[in-house]
Amino acid sequence: MTPRVSAALAHYTLAELEHQLLAWGYKPTHAARVLRTFYATGGGSQREDPAEHLRLPAGLAEKLQALSVPSLSSQLSALSSSPASSLAARQVAADGTTKLLLRLADTRTVESVLMPDFRADRAAGCISSQVGCAMGCDFCATTKTGFERNLTAGEIVEQFLALRREALAVGRRLQTLVFMGMGEPLLNLDHVLAAINRIADNRLGALGWRQITVSTVGIVPGIDALTAAGLNVHLAVSLHAPDDTTRAQLLPMGKRFPIADILAAADRFQASRGRPVTIQYCLLRGVNDSPDHARTLATVIGARRMHVNLLRYNPTGLSLKGHTYEPSSDDTAEAFAAILREHKLVAHFRRSRGPDIDAACGQLRRRTASA
Ligand code: SF4
C-alpha cells in the first residue's frame, strides 16, 4: 500500500501545492487535479497510482514522488527522516471494524477506526485530533498516558486518507467522519478546522461538510469558536452525567464548565446551524445509569431539539482514580432510554463496535506501547 506520489501531499493545501508547482516551473492548474485524484484514491496505492491517471508534464510525477512536508517543524524533522505517517498496527474485528495505529513522523502513534455501516457499501470513520489527551476522563484509556502534542492538519488528513484506503479495499465508501478518537478537538481547533477544510472540500477530499462531526467533552470557548468558524459540520457534546457533581467525578472538565454553560454554548451552535446537536452519554453501571439520572438528564435537556446518543462502555481496566468501570446491563440501558423517550427526547443506542479487538479509544496504542 505504498503511495506512488508522496504521502506528504496530505500536508498541502491547494494554494500551497499551486505555489510549489509554480516554484518548480509548472502551471499551478495541475495542483487541483493532483490533489483531487490523490484524495479520491485515499492517498494512492500500488493498484491506483494518482500520477498515472493524470498525464502530468514531464518530470512532475517524479517531483511529486519526492515531495516533502511543507513547514515541517524543526522538532519533527530532527526526529525523523520520514515526513508521512506509516501503519504501526492494524486490528480487524469479527464485525469488520478495523482499527489502525498510525506512526507519525516523530514516532508517536495515534488511532483511527473504520466502522462498516449496515449498508454493504458504506463505512464510518473515527479519527484522532491529538496525541494522547489532557482531559482526564476517568473511564478513558487514552488519557492514562497523558497529553503529548496536537496533531497537525496534515496528520489529521493522513488518518482520513488511511481510512478511505481501508474502506476502498473492502468495497465500501467512507461516508462519515467523527472526531471522537484520541484527544479533544476543540483544544486543537486551528489544525482541526484546516483539516476539515481539506477533507470536506469538493476539490480535495469531497466528503462533504455535513458528513463530519466534531465531538467535544464540553469546552465552552471551543464550542463558541467552532460556531464562529461557520463550518457546516455537526457537533456532539459528551455529557456522560446529568448533574455537575456526578460529571466532575467522571470528567475533570466538569469542574470548569457547568452543564448549563455547555448546553447554552450548544444552543448557540445549534441556532447558528439549524441542526440538532448530539448529546453523548456513556452508560456506566451504578455510576450514571439510574432512573433518577435519566429523569435528571431529561429535565436538563428539556425542550431542546437535541438527540441523545447512548454509548455502550468498552471496559479499559483500572482508571486513573482507581475505579474499574463496567457497562450498564442491557435492561438498565433500555430502561434509561425509555425514560428519555417518555420525556419526548430522541434517544438512540450507538452500536458497540469491535468488542473482540482493543475497541476503546487508546487501548491499541497502550497495548502496542507496552508490547
Ligand atoms: S474521552 Fe476523549 S476527551 Fe476524555 S480523556 Fe478520552 S480522549 Fe480525552
Can you describe this structure?
This protein is an alpha/beta fold and 371 residues long. 36% of the residues lie in helices and 18% in strands. The chain has 14 helices and twelve strands. The strands form two sheets. It has a ten-stranded mixed sheet, sandwiched between helices. Strands 5-6 form a two-stranded antiparallel sheet. Helix 1 packs across helix 2, helix 6 crosses helix 7 and helix 8 packs parallel to helix 11. Bound molecules: iron/sulfur cluster (SF4). Iron/sulfur cluster binds next to loops. Iron/sulfur cluster (SF4) binds next to loops.
Give structural attributes.
371 residues, alpha/beta, 10-stranded mixed sheet, two-stranded antiparallel ribbon, binds iron/sulfur cluster
Ordered list of secondary-structure elements with their pairings:
Blueprint: H1 14-24, H2 30-40, H3 50-53, H4 60-65, H5 74-79, E1 86-92, E2 98-103, E3 109-116, E4 122-126, E5 130-132, E6 147-150, H6 153-169, E7 173-179, H7 189-200, E8 212-216, H8 220-229, E9 234-238, H9 244-250, H10 253-256, H11 259-273, E10 278-283, H12 291-301, E11 307-312, H13 330-342, E12 346-350, H14 363-370
Parallel strand pairs: 4-7, 7-8, 8-9, 9-10, 10-11, 11-12
Antiparallel strand pairs: 1-2, 2-3, 3-4, 5-6
Helix pairs in contact: 1-2, 6-7, 8-11, 12-13
The structure holds iron/sulfur cluster.
The site of iron/sulfur cluster (SF4) has 12 residues, from loops.
